[in-house]
Design goal:
By secondary structure, this protein is of the alpha/beta class. The chain is built from eight helices and 17 strands. It binds flavin-adenine dinucleotide (FAD).
Length: 324
């Protein structure tokens, strides 16, 4: 099989595009394969990226793509869904899409992002990113503090230190924080000592039936994000927003196909410092493998992987032992 590019990258989010940019800066050829299903695809604005705070993630991705492709003819992007990856007899890597089209590269970068796995509570998904937030650096802030907010202590957050971590952040943007344990009475009791002497925090251990839209104070900046929590006892409370970090898993069947180990978090395991997997020549960057799932981290790990892959290719070309 002839080589389509030195490096195949699956995923054109901030991780894959940054890896491609680093590789392009040292004249490597790169083929990016991507199907446009970015994790934050449906959200109108992003934060925490200096110089782009509050801007549209779609515009940001377009600017990154246009800039990369217009300056680096060695990089190209194919819009497609890859369904299979494998290592060839020569030790190269092949990627195949649903139509049977194949690409071969010397090295493979998985920049596929992750899928969020929501708790089985009715209505959760409809508030995801619009009232239920996984990160208060991303959303929740307005110029006026909210009257009260909630923390949903289920799944990853069914844990005192993790829920308290989020609850403490919440006190910067709301005057009262209630931790909802969804029927876990023992967990609710164990928050007592973590609260210390502060009266800003409290718990509610009632079982949640569903999240519902409620009428909120129209003059509040939190009207659109207010979440109604309807309990199995038939009562409902309203919170200006709720903090919850869902479970997640790396996207696509590639870790399984290549036999790559996963971490308990669902991320693909990589080795420090170069983020190479247990297979030489396969690297991961961004949300599929990094614990901090934010755009700056996707870019950071993408640039590291780009540099590592370049180093390995050059060392291979000279039949030398490189650092990677
Ligand atoms: C609600 C929400 C809001 C967020 N807001 C912010 C924010 O304001 N600021 C911030 O810093 N971070 C934010 N994030 C996190 C941010 O979206 C991610 O950290 C970032 O997108 C990760 O980049 P990535 O390149 O790893 O993955 P992604 O951006 O998800 O890109 C991965 C790409 O790979 C593609 N892909 C996967 N499998 C295949 C396949 N088989 N074939 C072809 N292509 C494939 C995907 O479809 C996708 O196009 C937010 C996340 C969520 C859920």
């Amino acid at each position: 099989m002839s080589l389509d590019a030195e490096v195949l990258i699956i995923g054109a989010g901030p991780a894959g595009l940054t890896a491609a940019l680093a590789l392009a800066r040292l004249s490597h050829t790169v083929k990016i394969l991507d199907n446009n299903e970015y994790r934050n695809k449906m959200f109108p604005n992003m934060t925490m990226l200096v110089g782009h705070d509050g801007q549209s993630p779609a515009n940001f991705r377009k600017e990154c793509r246009d800039n990369l492709l217009s300056r680096h003819p060695n990089v190209s992007i194919e819009e497609t869904t890859v369904i299979r990856v494998s290592q060839t007899e020569k030790g190269q890597f092949a990627a195949e899409d649903a139509l049977g089209k194949k690409w071969v590269g010397k090295k493979l970068v998985l920049a596929t992002g992750c899928e969020d796995i929501f708790p089985a509570i009715e209505g959760y998904e409809s508030f995801w990113g619009k009232g239920i937030y996984h990160c208060y650096f991303y959303k929740g802030y307005t110029t006026e503090k909210a009257k009260s907010s909630g923390i949903l202590a289920v799944d990853v957050m069914q844990d005192v230190p993790k829920s308290m971590h989020a609850a403490r952040y919440a006190t910067q943007i709301s005057n009262q924080v209630t931790i909802y344990t969804n029927g876990d009475t023992e967990l609710a009791k164990s928050f007592g000592s973590a609260f210390g002497t502060s009266d800003l925090f409290r718990t509610d251990d009632r079982k949640i039936a569903r999240f519902v839209k409620v009428d909120a104070d129209a003059s509040s900046p939190h009207t659109d994000t207010t979440v109604g929590i309807e309990f199995e006892d038939g009562t409902t409370v309203a919170e200006s927003f709720i903090g919850h970090y869902p479970l997640s898993k790396n996207k696509g069947p590639f870790a399984e196909q290549l036999g790559l180990p996963l971490l308990p978090s669902g991320d693909i395991a990589t080795n420090q410092p170069w983020l190479q997997t247990d297979i030489r020549g396969v690297f991961c960057c961004g949300d599929n493998s990094q614990p901090r799932k934010i755009i700056p981290e996707a870019q950071n790990s993408g640039s590291l992987v780009g540099a590592a892959v370049s180093n390995q290719i050059i060392a291979d070309n000279f039949e030398q032992q490189g650092l990677v």
